[in-house]
Design goal:
Blueprint: H1 7-29, E1 41-43, E2 50-52, H2 53-69, E3 74-77, H3 78-84, E4 95-103, H4 105-109, E5 116-123, E6 126-134, E7 139-144, E8 149-153, E9 158-161, E10 171-175, H5 181-194, E11 196-198, H6 203-211, E12 217-220, H7 225-237, E13 241-244, E14 259-262, H8 265-275
Parallel strand pairs: 3-4, 10-11, 10-12
Antiparallel strand pairs: 1-2, 4-5, 5-6, 6-7, 7-8, 8-9, 12-14, 13-14
Helix pairs in contact: 1-2, 6-7
């Protein structure tokens, strides 16, 4: 269905998602940023897992627009999956689109700039194209498998290719949520002892930071299709390495457990050796 070896096809899909993500932010997400009411904020899996009315409205709008353009593609939306308790094990090798309408909802609630909207195109359970829009810092990342990751800075209208370098600055980001408690505490202690850790609260923002060489690595205690499909493709296409932490396998939408994104395979192995509790 998608022949991304042709530049015109990449441009067509990229333009569609750029304008879609920009519009949903302009018309729904940012429109309510300054006047979000407490009765529009809810929790999901735990007391720190937030969702707002506008997460849901934004996802509904994105799904509606995708269905107009790509009628045969199935959609995996974060809020829809939670709300309807959808079994992700039914995913086959066809095309899917993952959606995270507001990645970093807690930051959005607190009017912190560290949130974004993310979409990925999945084929054979792995991401082949990913798009992230950062509304408050006015940046947009696009990535296609085998064609690199690019960033558009809307403040300057400049587009440049993201390239991860080998220089280490001893800053890292991520969290251990999802790991069994005893192991989680040990890994967190190792994380904080060996590295300077920043907690950002948005996989998409962390992806931008690693791709821009602002942190050395990202560690997450668990994975989801909507968070880690874009992170995996964008980082790998920028020259980094992303593998599941426990067995160094490639990420796919069925992956379980912690994940580590680093500057390259040698750095990945170094970080893994510092955090591993085996």
């Amino acid at each position: 269905m998608f022949d991304f070896t042709k530049e015109e096809n990449r441009r067509y899909v990229n333009d569609f998602f750029f304008y879609l993500l920009k519009k949903v932010n302009d018309d729904i997400i940012l429109k309510h940023l300054e006047n979000l009411n407490s009765d529009e904020i809810f929790t999901k899996s735990d007391k720190n897992d937030f969702v707002t009315v506008y997460d849901k409205k934004a996802e509904e709008y994105i799904i509606k627009e995708i269905n107009k353009k790509f009628v045969t593609i199935k959609i995996i939306g974060e809020e829809t999956t939670f709300q309807k308790n959808i079994d992700l094990s039914i995913i086959d090798d066809g095309y899917y689109i993952t959606i995270d309408p507001i990645d970093g909802t807690k930051n959005y609630i607190n009017k912190n700039e560290n949130f974004c909207s993310m979409v990925s195109l999945i084929f054979k359970k792995k991401p082949i194209a990913s798009f992230i829009y950062y509304p408050l810092i006015k940046k947009y990342i696009s990535s296609f498998e085998n064609f690199g990751s690019k960033i558009l800075d809307l403040n300057t209208n400049e587009i440049y290719k993201l390239k991860i370098n080998k220089e280490l600055i001893n800053f890292a980001t991520g969290g251990t949520k999802g790991i069994p408690e005893i192991a989680r505490k040990i890994i967190l202690e190792k994380f904080n002892f060996n590295f300077k850790r920043f907690f950002i609260g948005s996989a998409g923002v962390e992806t931008l930071m690693l791709a821009n060489n602002e942190v050395d690595f990202i560690f997450h205690g668990r994975v989801t299709p909507w968070d880690h499909s874009p992170m995996t493709l964008i980082i790998k296409e920028a020259g980094g390495e992303v593998l599941m932490f426990n067995n160094a396998s490639a990420f796919n939408v069925f992956s379980k457990g912690p994940i580590l994104a680093a500057k390259n395979i040698e750095h990945w192995k170094h970080v893994e050796s510092k955090l591993n509790i085996k």
